[in-house]
Amino acid sequence: MTEQLFLQYLAVSLTTSVLVIILYIARRCINQIYASKWKYHLWFFLAIRLMIAVIFYLPDISVKILLPDTYITSFKNVLLANSKSADKQKGAELESQLDSYAKVLIKTRKLTLLEILFVIWIVGICVFLILQLIQYYLMKRDLFRWAQISKNSEISGKVSEISNELDVNKKIPVFISSKANSPLMIGLLHPVMILPHENFKNLDLSFVIRHEIMHYKRRDLWYKFIILIANAIHWFNPVIYLMRQQANVDMELSCDDMVLDNMSFKYRKAYLEMIFGMIKHQKTNGLTTNFFGGASIMKERFQNILNVEKKRNGWIIFSCICITSILASSFVAFTPAFRQSDISTTTANVRENRNYKEMEKNLTSDENMESIITFSKDFINLFNGAVANQVTVSFEDYIFNKNLLIFTDKMLKLTQKQELLGYNDIIYGGNNDFKEIECNKIEENVYYLKVPFSFQGSGMVCQLLVENILKHLEIVDFYFGTQDGVDTIATGHIMERKVNNTELWNDEHWVNSVFEKMLAYDAKLEEQAKRKK
């Protein structure tokens, strides 16, 4: 589940990056036509999208990206014994050997590539946030070490005046700090304004205070915090750093627009001269506003400030990009791929030695019931993952009945052919999400399971009969039962097919009829494949 979460964030990161790159390349053209406010809101929406990686999967995924080394079969499917004795003492020894070997398997289990990437991702998020917090702490410490609260009546009067004008009811503390190279706001929970000095001209003071109070009113510190968290989650993606930079630019541009709304060119020129006169190199942090943001940002701000032409709101393009960002990830699926070497082929030679019924154990505890459920999940993931990735796998760890094993192997090949021809409505994959599972004991050591599961929003139900032989689990019958599934075509319709007979696959008449239908369907698929070519 954790690996699947990482893959979802990876898909959202990839698709959002494409939108960010397009917006960045077209930014100059866009800025000439549209007001900065819509992009200011767009970056916030994309940051939320990057934080909440919910993917609305479509029936057909156009791009599948396979990730290797992501599947290891469960140790519970391995049995280390071949006993022809039916006495209890031998049975106890066999159980002891099985338990000991299971512990060895747990200790020697290797991490998959996907698990390693998940750990690196989480560590990267933590390191990114720690570095940001350290930087913020050091900057805040330097700012406040020699800071004093302003007692200038002109400044406090101007703050009150502009606050009332902008409908800001809370009193904003103003500090003077020689370590501040330009005016800024700092503090998420208790924002304060910091000025580098008190010697402002009357008009310049009005500009500075209005600009910073506008940041306060719009809660831009929280805006930058959300962008920062999105950047932390996608720390591995350089495009998201670019997005964060552009969000800061558009935050300042839109703030300038609101300060200068309906102002004349003369007023704008005075505002620009005030900013130009305060420019100094300043180290900034993601959790502060800053009047100066670097040469490239200032160039864009100067052009925007002097532009008195009325610009479009851009809400239509905003809506289109938002919808695209939500749906784009539906066309990309990172799918765990199987390697045949990852699948254990160690099985007990119990197919010829089934004469120890007296040693069977009843699975009545929650722990043993959970083993049956896990066993069934592993089988479903193995089969569906093999379909998705077009690989050959072994089912000998799950099925001992020769006829059922042949059927399962053939069913896999036919389902893979269906997948290549695009006949499957179901999305197959090896990391399925399982819902509430029904597991009932129907006879001595035989369990019926009804397992609902889904992958990328596409769901189905698998029915299984699982038998326990000396704590070893074996599937004696199963049925996925999709409308056009191979098992439906070969073994019966959903309304007719019953999964309740442990001896079904020993019935030669039944087995022959099933294999005949599979041969006929195989020929049909081959013919349709030739027509497509």
First-last Cα distance: 39 Å
| Mean pLDDT level | 80
* Proportion in helices: 40-55%
The succession of helices and strands, N to C, reads HHHEHHEHEEEHHHHHHEHHEEEEEHH
Shape: elongated
Radius of gyration: 33 Å
Flag low-confidence runs. 69-88, 97-109, 337-364
The total domain count is 3
Strand content: 5-15%
Characterization of this structure:
The protein has 533 residues and is α+β, with helices and mostly antiparallel strands. The protein folds into three domains: 2-58 and 117-330, no CATH class; 73-109; 360-532, Nuclear Transport Factor 2, Chain: A (Roll), CATH 3.10.450. It contains 16 helices and eleven strands. The chain has helices at residues 2-25, 27-33, 36-51, 88-108, 113-145, 153-165, 202-217, 220-233, 238-259, 265-278, 295-306, 315-328, 366-389, 402-421, 486-491, 508-532, and strands spanning 63-67, 148-149, 174-176, 184-186, 192-195, 332-336, 433-434, 438-443, 446-455, 458-469, 472-479. The strands form three sheets. Strands 7, 8, 9, 10 and 11 form a five-stranded antiparallel β-sheet that branches. Helix 3 packs antiparallel against helix 9, helix 6 (153-165) packs across helix 7 and helix 8 (220-233) packs antiparallel against helix 9 (238-259). Residues 69-88, 97-109 and 337-364 have low confidence and may be disordered.
